[in-house]
């Protein structure tokens, strides 16, 4: 692991510092220590080193948690907390102690050279050790923030993560009184950590979620109305490129699938404000050969105060389509849960080509009642029976659906710390604040809810591949156009740090090579053996009852 | 460009002996338009500030069309009705293309705006710019976006007020947070 390889904090490396005090010009402020905020003359460095040695011996003889600090006090860049959390979690999994780098060859990196040149060499050595975790932007941050982390805050931050995981374990075992006392301890620790950024912020969210789980489990399901959720979603859309990447990639795939067809139908599983569709309408308007007749069916939550929000969005999209001369029809389907939608509501006509667009919706169907047939399988089956030309599936690339609570919790801690990291790059404070609330609601659902109330059941792409493959879909490669467009979109909209990767025809958006969202496209496998008449009967059977009915036909 | 024109004027005046022949560019709008078709974005904006006549001339969308797409190879066909419907080339340049150019400038090897305009655009960049332009038009149709946060006020150390404007209403939400970190609850409060 990178950060463990070089113990570079000034306090802990006092051992062989005395070897490097020769040959310095007098009366110059030491460059390396000046970077750490201390103004020490080179002539005084020997005394400083001796004091530090004495401090070290005292700390070694002190209680155990401080002596651990001596061995593994390393600098963490507080804005790169995801890598820090990752290193902490891997440390927990391998309890072998970290070895102190010994020998003066390691210390040559941080010998107390006081010229500025030496300072930059040291810092490049530091950044080289973290090559796997740093983008270009953070190299500047390293020089500024190396000095900010104090030992006290690190201590609290490390303890916070340890206590969080202990608390989650105790919740899993059902020891609620212990969990409660741990939560109080964590709230105490929170006061000593900066909750404005970094580990403090993420830990704050998770502590909130855990305390909700313990104290008000029934109140969790009703956080906020759907109208609030739309506002939060909109600001999340503006704050970071995740949703834009999803929309543009799906649009490109759908556009390519619709090539040559004149009558097309798009089904959107979560319309929200319909921000995805203007771009598709415009692209269809400009395609060589002219625009097709476009029908859009948008599925969304029923609005609480009686306004027909779906219809309003449909009207706006129709206005846009008419101004660019695209024949357009809109249909809104209001359903409070996605599994309540039935195929007859969509009114698919046989002569049109169907595209299905699911942006972070399919995972909501994974929670199932064990006595009935699995919701997701039923759902995928009737989708397949619609015979779509393309189905675009965009999902979070995370594993938050494991049966054990502690596994889910650990995964979520890791994933959402990456997510918060990436949000730090957002420029507008207001958008960032609301986007953070949006993410907090997701976290709360992952941590607090159980059973059917837990809808944020993210699964990684590999599992979706297996699931969709088993349901009769085959993958469609997304193509180089989608990749180029995604890369261009990222350069336009965001800080350096985001990256797009292509793997087996699927695109993944990641932050510093940690994946956040995966986009893939699918098409129904044609079934050659069953003739059309009997295929229709099979479809009708599944929709009316789950028991096999006696029929005179053979299959 | 403008200075060059002025010098040409003076040269003309000096070159003509005897006759007091004045050449004023404002009498020859077609020449002016031809010149303005070939300048870069910033100069066109500057030209719009010269006088009312020039301002009205630069609002002519075909000038901006040249600016946007004359360096696209191959030139996009059939784009004009769509762009005009969505707000015109001038708006396309202001909202989307200028941003794309400045971003590419930051990534590329530097040089002024004019250097980049001479760069040949690829089809992908054109398509992406048009898509973004369309999204911008759609968001304007919403009347400035649904539920835009107007302002955030920190009342006390823990309580933040978020003002959200949507269509004709202004809703104020109360949320909890300390330092930079705003927590969950969006509770609408009635005044």
Layout of strands and helices, then pairs:
The complex is a heterodimer of chains A (about 550) and B (about 190).
Chain A: H1 2-5, H2 31-35, H3 45-60, H4 64-71, H5 81-93, H6 104-107, H7 116-129, H8 136-145, H9 151-173, H10 176-190, H11 199-215, H12 226-239, H13 242-257, E1 263-268, H14 277-285, E2 293-300, H15 309-323, E3 328-334, E4 353-359, H16 375-385, E5 390-396, H17 405-423, H18 429-448, H19 461-470, E6 473-476, H20 479-493, E7 498-503, E8 506-511, E9 514-524, H21 532-544
Parallel strand pairs in A: 1-2, 1-4, 2-3, 4-5
Antiparallel strand pairs in A: 5-9, 6-9, 7-8, 8-9
Helix pairs in contact in A: 5-17, 9-10, 9-11, 9-17, 10-11, 11-17, 11-18, 12-18, 13-14, 13-20, 17-18
Chain B: H1 2-15, H2 29-36, H3 41-47, H4 52-58, H5 61-69, H6 79-86, H7 89-107, H8 113-117, H9 123-141, E1 148-154, E2 159-166, E3 169-178, E4 181-182, E5 187-188
Antiparallel strand pairs in B: 1-2, 2-3, 3-4, 3-5
Features:
A: 555 residues, alpha/beta, Rossmann fold, 9-stranded mixed β-sheet, 49% helix, disordered N terminus, B: 191 residues, alpha+beta, 5 strands, ubl conjugation (chain A)
Describe this entry's structure for a reader.
The complex is a heterodimer of chains A (555) and B (191). Chain A has 555 residues and is an alpha/beta fold. Chain A has a domain at 229-397 and 410-524: Rossmann fold, CATH 3.40.50. Helices cover 49% and strands 11% of the residues of chain A. Chain A has 21 helices and nine strands. Chain A has helices at residues 2-5, 31-35, 45-60, 64-71, 81-93, 104-107, 116-129, 136-145, 151-173, 176-190, 199-215, 226-239, 242-257, 277-285, 309-323, 375-385, 405-423, 429-448, 461-470, 479-493, 532-544; strands at 263-268, 293-300, 328-334, 353-359, 390-396, 473-476, 498-503, 506-511, 514-524. In chain A, strands 1, 2, 3, 4, 5, 6, 7, 8 and 9 form a nine-stranded mixed β-sheet that branches. Chain A is globular and about 85 Å long. Chain A starts with a helix and ends in an 11-residue tail after the last helix. With 191 residues, chain B is an alpha+beta fold. Chain B has a domain at 76-139. Helices cover 50% and strands 15% of the residues of chain B. Chain B has nine helices and five strands; from the N terminus they run αααααααααβββββ. Chain B has helices at residues 2-15, 29-36, 41-47, 52-58, 61-69, 79-86, 89-107, 113-117, 123-141; strands at 148-154, 159-166, 169-178, 181-182, 187-188. In chain B, strands 1, 2, 3, 4 and 5 form a five-stranded antiparallel β-sheet that branches. In chain B, helix 5 (61-69) runs parallel beside helix 7 (89-107) and helix 7 (89-107) packs across helix 9 (123-141). Chain B is elongated and about 75 Å long. Chain B starts with a helix and ends with a strand. Residues 109-118 of chain B have low confidence and may be disordered. Classes of the chains: A alpha/beta (555), B alpha+beta (191). Chains A and B meet through helix 11, helix 12, helix 14, helix 15 and helix 18 of A and helix 6, helix 7, helix 9, strand 1 and strand 2 of B.
């Amino acid at each position: 692991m990178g950060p463990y390889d070089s113990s570079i904090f000034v306090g802990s490396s006092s051992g062989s510092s005395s070897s490097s005090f020769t040959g310095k010009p007098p009366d110059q402020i030491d460059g390396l220590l000046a970077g750490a905020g201390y103004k020490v003359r080179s002539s005084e460095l020997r005394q400083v080193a001796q004091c530090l040695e004495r401090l070290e011996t005292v700390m070694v003889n002190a209680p155990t948690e401080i002596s651990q600090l001596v061995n593994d006090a390393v600098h963490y860049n507080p804005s790169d907390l995801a890598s820090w959390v990752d290193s902490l979690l891997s440390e927990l999994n391998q309890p072998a102690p970290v070895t102190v780098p010994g020998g003066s060859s390691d210390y040559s990196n941080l010998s107390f050279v006081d010229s500025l040149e030496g300072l930059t060499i040291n810092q490049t050595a530091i950044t080289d050790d973290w090559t796997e975790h740093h983008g270009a932007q953070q190299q500047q941050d390293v020089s500024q923030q190396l000095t900010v982390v104090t030992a006290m805050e690190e201590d609290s931050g490390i303890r916070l993560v340890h206590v969080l995981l202990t608390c989650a374990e105790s919740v899993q075992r059902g020891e609620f009184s212990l969990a409660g006392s741990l939560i109080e301890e964590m709230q105490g620790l929170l006061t000593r950590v900066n909750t404005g950024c970094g580990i403090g912020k993420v830990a704050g969210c998770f502590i909130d979620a855990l305390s909700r789980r313990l104290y008000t489990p029934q109140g969790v399901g009703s956080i906020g109305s759907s109208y609030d959720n739309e506002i939060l979603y909109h600001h999340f859309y503006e704050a970071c490129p995740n949703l834009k990447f999803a929309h543009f990639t799906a649009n490109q795939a759908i556009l390519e699938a619709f090539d040559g067809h004149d009558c097309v139908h798009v089904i959107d599983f979560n319309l929200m404000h319909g921000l995805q569709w203007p771009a598709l309408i415009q692209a269809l308007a400009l395609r060589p050969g002219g625009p097709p007749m476009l029908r859009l069916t948008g599925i969304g939550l029923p609005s609480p105060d009686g306004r027909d929000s779906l219809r309003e969005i449909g009207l706006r999209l129709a206005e846009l389509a008419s101004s660019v001369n695209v024949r357009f029809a809109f249909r809104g389907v209001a359903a409070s849960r996605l599994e309540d939608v039935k195929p007859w509501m969509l009114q698919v006509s046989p002569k049109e080509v169907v595209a299905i667009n699911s942006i972070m919706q399919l995972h909501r169907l994974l929670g199932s009642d064990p006595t009935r047939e699995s919701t997701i399988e039923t759902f995928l089956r009737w989708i397949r029976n619609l015979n779509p030309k393309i189905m675009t599936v965009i999902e979070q690339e995370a594993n938050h659906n494991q049966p054990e609570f502690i596994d889910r919790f650990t995964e979520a801690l890791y994933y959402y710390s990456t997510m918060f990291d990436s949000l730090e790059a957002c420029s507008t404070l207001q958008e960032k604040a609301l986007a953070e609330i949006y993410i907090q609601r997701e976290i709360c659902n992952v941590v607090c809810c159980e059973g059917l109330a837990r809808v944020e059941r993210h699964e990684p792409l590999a599992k979706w591949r297996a699931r969709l493959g088993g349901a009769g879909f085959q993958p469609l490669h997304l193509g180089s156009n989608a990749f180029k467009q995604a890369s261009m979109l990222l350069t336009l909209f965001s800080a350096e740090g985001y990256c797009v990767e292509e793997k087996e025809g699927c695109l993944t958006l990641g932050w510093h090579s940690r994946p956040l969202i995966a986009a893939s496209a699918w098409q129904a496998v044609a079934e050659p053996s069953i003739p059309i008449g009997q295929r229709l009967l099979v479809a009708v059977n599944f929709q009316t009852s789950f028991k096999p009915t006696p029929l005179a036909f053979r299959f | 460009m403008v200075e060059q024109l002025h010098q040409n004027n003076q040269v003309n005046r000096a070159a003509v002996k005897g006759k007091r022949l004045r050449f004023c560019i404002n009498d020859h709008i077609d020449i002016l338009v031809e010149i303005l078709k070939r300048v870069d974005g910033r100069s066109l904006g500057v030209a719009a500030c010269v006088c009312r006549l020039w301002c009205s001339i630069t609002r002519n969308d075909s000038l901006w069309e040249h600016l946007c797409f004359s360096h696209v190879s191959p030139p996009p066909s059939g784009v004009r009705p769509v762009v005009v419907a969505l707000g015109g080339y001038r708006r396309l340049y202001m909202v989307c293309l200028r941003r794309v150019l400045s971003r590419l400038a930051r990534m590329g090897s530097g040089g002024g705006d004019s250097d980049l305009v001479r760069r040949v655009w690829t089809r992908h960049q054109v398509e992406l710019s048009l898509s973004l332009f369309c999204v911008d038009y759609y968001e304007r149709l919403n009347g400035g976006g649904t539920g835009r946060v107007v302002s955030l006020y920190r009342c006390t150390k823990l309580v933040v007020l978020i003002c959200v404007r949507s269509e004709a209403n202004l809703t104020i939400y109360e949320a909890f947070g300390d330092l930079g970190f705003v927590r969950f609850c969006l509770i609408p409060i009635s005044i």
